[in-house]
Amino acid sequence: MSLPTYGAMAVDYHRPMTGTGEAKASLARLLQNAEHVVPQEELAERLGRDRPLRVKLGVDPTARDITLGWAVPLRKLRAFQDEGHVAVLIMGDFTARIGDPSGKSETRPQLSREVVRANAEACVEQLLDILSEENLEIRFNSEWLDALNLADLLKLTSHGTVAQMLERDDFAKRYSERRPISIVEFMYPLMQGYDSVAIEADVEIGGTDQLFNLLVGRDLQRAYGQEPQVALTMPLLVGLDGLHKMSQSLNNYVGIRESPEEVFGKVMSVPDRLAGQYAALAAGLASDEIADIESASSGGGPDAGDAKRRVARAVVELYHGPEAAQRAEEAFDRQFREGGVPDEMPTAGLPGDAVDGDVAYLPRVLAELGLATSRSEARRLIAQGGVRVDGQVTTTEEIPLTALRGAVLQVGKRRFVRVAE
Question: Mind listing the pLDDT tens digit for each residue in 278-320?
């Protein structure tokens, strides 16, 4: 797959003039759910200008799926598009090879160019599920960062200080605990900020953990003779575990391209206390409905379940449509209320290295088919009674082939695979 590039020439810059009342309404829509706007008065002033703003969002393709967590700032970027502004999506194919240190307690392993490029290819098409192709630029920051020579890098680093970097909570904590911080990690905020210089951003969007980096971008634009961008951050969506932000590396995520049934079931599994957050950030429901969901979910029990059901339907509708949402809800009811299995599930053959004569080694089967992250996890699940073969709990690790061929393997409540005959 070749990666599309949407350059400035593809952007429709026409934007109708807005009066004072419309500008205020536009500002209110764009500020909805935002955590920080620095400085807010500048955003209000810029929205009144007679040209579209260039609104930047940087995405490092460190993984292949767009999650509901990634979708939060992406949908805010779409909101700016809907108001007539230009979305400038930066695919951080250069910065992803370094790794964003934001919120990290240790130095991240660097990714290869090949891995980053493959991830970028997988991401671009999904990004267009959310963004409009009108008023859109997709840029890869290797375009300008690869071109920097040593003199350029020295100039860039001259605009940052060690003291400034150590103001970041994550760096400060690691420094006080004498844990390593590589020099290249100090470079990351500078390079993200240089992206803003390169594309002349008016506004940059990011998660709350990106505020420091966004403010570095303001400083660099000022140093390079540009008008500093407005920094706008969005809250971080908590993952399915209810503890950490949604992350593919923590396997606590919902992908926007996952099946409607999987999306519905995953949203239903989040802790009750997160129903309001998912309603606001993942489903984009109206404020009055969000308030109702927060109230209903606060006490737990059936009311909380019904509130999450409303959120799950809305999330599936957003990415798959209302008919898919209805089918997903019906499948959920069959599976969880009636004890059935999904109508549709992947089919896979038995891995050859899991078969020995007339028996199969179940932990290897589960790991190879993606029903467990490893053989050790599979053994633990089997011992805990979390694995079923054709609906029957199994506690043995060796299964006759005749019992497995054509059988439905189930791990937990939502993971199913049918073994090929």
Answer: 999 999 888 889 999 999 888 778 888 889 999 999 999 999 9
**Helices assigned H by DSSP within 177-321:** 183-199, 211-223, 260-268, 275-277, 287-297, 301-320
Answer whether the bond into residue 235 is a cis peptide, omega within 30°: no
| CA distance linking residue 72 with residue 232, whole number of Å | 12
Within 344-421, residue ranges assigned H as helices are 362-368, 375-383, 401-404
Contacts of 370 (CB under 8 A, 6+ apart): 417
User: Do 8-234 and 347-419 show the same overall fold?
Assistant: no
Q: In what order do the strands lie in the sheet with 355-356?
A: 355-356, 359-361, 398-400
Q: b/e string for 70-84 if b means 16 or more Cβ within 10 A?
A: bbbbbbbbbbbbebb
Specify whether domain 347-419 bears CATH 3.10.290.10: yes
Tokens standing for residue 388: 């079923």
* Number of Cβ atoms within 10 Å of the Cβ of 176: 9
Answer whether 0.85 is exceeded by the pTM: no
Q: Alpha-carbon distance 74 to 304, whole Å?
A: 28
Nearest Cα residue to 241 out of 268, 283, 271, 267: 271
E strands in 99-218 = 136-140, 203-207
Contact between residue 337 and residue 408 where contact means Cβ atoms under 8 Å apart? no
* Cα 372 from chain centre: 22
Domain limits, the chain: 8-234, 260-337, 347-419
Look at residues 336, 334, 340, 348 and name the one whose alpha carbon lies nearest to residue 390.
340
Q: Domain 8-234 falls in which CATH fold?
A: Rossmann fold (3.40.50)
Sort residue 242 into left (φ over 0), alpha (ψ -120 to 50) or beta.
Answer: left
Calpha distance 109→173 (Å, rounded): 19
| Residues 70, 313: Cα–Cα separation, whole Å | 19
10 Å Cβ neighbour count for 297?
26
How far is 213 from 106, CA to CA, in rounded Å?
Answer: 18
pLDDT in tens, 95-141: 877 765 655 545 556 667 778 888 877 788 888 899 998 899 999 88
d(CA 364, CA 352): 10
